Amino acid sequence: MANRELSRIFSELALYLEMDSIPFKPRSYEKAAEALNVLSDEAEEIYQKEGPKGLEGIPGVGKGIAEKIAEYLETGKIHELEQYRKKMPTDIEKLTLVEGIGPKMVKELWGYLKIKNLKDLEKAARAGRVAGIPGFGPKKEQNILQGIGFLKRSEGRWLLHEIYPVAQRYAEELKASGLVRQAVPAGSLRRMKETIGDIDILVSTKQPGKAMDFFLNMVPHEKVWGKGRTKTSVRSTQGFDVDVRVVPENVFGAALQYFTGSKEHNVRLRTLAAKKGFKLSEYGLFSAKGGSAVGGKGKKLVACKTEKSVYRILGIQEPEPELREDRGEVQAALLGKLPKLIPYGSLKGDLQVQTDWTDGRHSIEEMARESKKQGLSYIAITDHTRDLAMTGGLDEKKLRLQMAEIDRINSKSEFRNSRFRVLKGAEVNIRKDGSLDIEDELLAKLDVVGASVHSNFRMSKNDMTKRIVRAMKSPHVDILFHPTGRWLLKREAYEADMEEIIREAQKTGTALEVNASVRMDLKDADIRKAVEAGVKLAIDSDAHDKSHFRFLRFGIAQARRGWAKASDVMNTRDVVGFLGLLKKK
Ligand code: DGT
Ligand code: CA
Ligand code: CA
Ligand code: ZN
Asked: Which own/partner pairs from 259-264 qualify as long-range (CB within 8 Å, at least 24 positions apart)?
């Protein structure tokens, strides 16, 4: 029994309990589900060795949950969950993925219309039957249809955050096997796209048969789509596909160029090649002018070993993989005008960090210590404020206490001696009318203030834009946090006029956030617009846990995809330089 399966079971049970308004338990089941999902030891092994008591050593697992895990491991079932499933055989997990649908609504949908799954729901909503349920109405029905559409569009895509480390590990293991000379993850992953359809790994090897066997052994999979000496493709047990292709060493560069994509970039490049008298394909760059017959029909193979040589012979700069989306990079490369992108690892500080003062998991000190270990020299503590009650948002009194605590931490020798600095900040809420939920007088005392929308997402575009613009006009708001409110694979952006927001950012000197967590907000295309307008960016991890600093890399990736240079990003500066860029209060 895999941990992932157990984790799923507890998430499902949590949803059913929430549906029945049972207090506390749903949250603790959810926490157990999260812990099981990231647990490195198998719960089943722990149980076999140490019994139910051993299970209680898992974070978030107490006596009650340990007994339930044991029940599942012994009988393959949890009685309580089976009863719920019998009483209400709905796909509650999928249904609650629809934005705006909670467990209680699933109960209503089942009670009134016997809706079991997404398909039933879509059908009923299209027929206008959902609007008829008391408390639903036509507007909610419309929102539900929108939510289903969004889910469908995200289907089969995975977060870069999750997939990237897996793909890197596979490439490393392949190389370590000694069976391959090169192993490089290509495709959207190499371009660092925010979501990934599948993993494409290119290898060069003299022993393709053995390398493919090794690959099949390495990737835990539930299905083999195809196995051959040049391509093998599987569906991993985690649900995504992994392809591996063997390409000859002497054309590795051409193949890497081709399989890195994007398709649109390739088409653009191939057209350019043709204009210059070449033929470009995954098998190499060929001169149309003849020569000895290698590969493509009487044409001469001219460049292929490295990707660099392909671009060089075409006479253009080599665009970094993040730029290869046919957004003008080939034209810029022709003119030698590609930007020098912000390098990975170049952030000196993190500008959005939550702690156990609100919904973060670790203390201010723990977050400071960890970020310092990871090479940062400052972080801004930006816990939520008053209006976000469910996170225990801080009011003025608690914020003042936190500021004193930060002074205490900064004065400790471990931080003072290395000039590490914890900045005082907050993530204040932008209310419906654009006002903020913390008094100006206190905001003026903070080092850095981020403001964001966390409620009333469904406003007209005009009203939402006005609301945000008003907040940006505050002399205290330094950064607009997650400007569009989207959530990858979960929630669409609210409606707001990005052009107007960028203009206002430029006018007021407000920075725009590049939130590197699952929000990825701003997205690459908007980052590009902000960069072009000369607006400052703030890349941050939105950490709620000390392991979250790893997200920063993916924020940098999106900034690179938005053509940002180091100078466009405030927190590539040291703390003094950074503070100097903020609004003068
Ligand atoms: P994904 O997996 O949906 O996130 O996106 P990609 O970009 O990884 O796409 P994928 O896995 O279908 O193919 C990998 C690369 O192979 C793609 O980026 C470019 C290249 N490629 C695939 N199909 C075509 C094609 O029809 N024409 C050209 N020129 N290139 C292609
Ligand atoms: Ca792919
Ligand atoms: Ca693929
Ligand atoms: Zn937020």
From this structure: 259/186, 259/187, 259/200, 259/202, 260/186, 260/187, 260/190, 260/191, 260/307, 260/321, 260/324, 261/186, 261/187, 261/188, 261/191, 261/324, 262/188, 262/191, 262/324, 262/325, 262/326, 264/325, 264/326
Q: Tell me whether residue 340 is in a domain.
A: no
* Residue 237 lies in domain: 158-246
CA angle 553, 254, 339 (to 5 degrees): 45
Q: What is the pLDDT of residues 11-52, one digit of tens each?
A: 999 999 999 999 889 999 998 998 888 788 889 999 999 998
Q: Which one of 153, 154, 157, 188 would you pick to mutate in the ligand 1 pocket, going by the greatest count of ligand atoms within 8 A of its CB?
A: 188
Q: How many domains does the chain have?
A: 4
Q: What is the pTM of this model?
A: 0.88
Nearest protein Cα to ligand 1, atom 13 = 187
Q: Does residue 298 carry a pLDDT above 60?
A: no
Among the candidates 210, 228, 246, a domain finishes at 246
Query: What is the tens place of the pLDDT at every residue in 432-487?
Result: 999 999 999 999 999 999 999 999 998 999 999 999 999 999 999 999 999 999 99
Are both 402 and 547 inside the same structural domain?
A: yes
Same domain, 281 and 365: no
Sequence-separated (6 or more) residues with CB below 8 Å from residue 248: 204
585 domain-assigned: no
Atom of ligand 1 nearest to the CA of 198: 2
Q: Where are the alpha helices (DSSP H) in 278-386?
A: 307-313, 329-334, 364-373
Contact 96, 147 (CB under 8 A): no
Q: Are 492 and 529 in contact (CB under 8 A)?
A: no
In a domain, 342, yes or no: no
- Asked, for residue 341, whether it belongs to a domain, the answer is no
Does residue 188 line the site of ligand 1, with CB under 6 A? yes
Both 425 and 570 in a single domain? yes
Query: In this structure, which residue's CA is closest to atom 15 in ligand 1?
Result: 259
Domain CATH code at residue 273 = 3.30.210.10
Per-residue pLDDT tens over the stretch 142-195 = 999 999 998 888 888 999 999 999 999 999 999 999 999 999 999 999 999 999
Q: Is the pLDDT of residue 295 over 70?
A: no
Neighbouring C-beta atoms of residue 44, cutoff 10 Å: 17
